[in-house]
């Protein structure tokens, strides 16, 4: 298992989901992907994409400044 970070700050829907999907395809089951984004819609869109595609959301939170969203997911099989 290894950890990876994907920075999609400043990107608007649907780009954060598309880039998350593209990155997930390169990773092995059990790898952890931390997605950094600023689009509020990603808080709902990325977890929905995870449910559909068999990945697990480990955390989904907004940082203290209210501008940075950090979604951490585990890649499924």
From TrEMBL:
InterPro entries in the cross-refs: TusA-like, TusA-like_sf
Check the record and name the Pfam families matching this protein. Answer: TusA
Highest taxon, organism lineage = Bacteria
Q: Where is the UPF0033 domain?
A: 6-30
Q: What is the similarity comment for this entry? A: Belongs to the sulfur carrier protein TusA family.
Write down what this protein is called.
UPF0033 domain-containing protein
The upper taxonomy is: Bacteria, Pseudomonadati, Pseudomonadota, Gammaproteobacteria, Candidatus Tenderiales
């Amino acid at each position: 298992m290894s950890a990876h970070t994907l920075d999609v700050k400043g990107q608007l829907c649907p780009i954060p989901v598309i880039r998350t999907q593209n990155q997930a395809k390169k990773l092995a089951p059990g790898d952890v992907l931390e997605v950094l984004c600023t689009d509020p819609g990603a808080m709902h869109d990325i977890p929905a994409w995870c449910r559909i595609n068999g990945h697990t959301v480990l955390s989904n939170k907004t940082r203290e400044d209210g501008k940075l969203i950090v979604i951490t997911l585990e890649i499924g099989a």
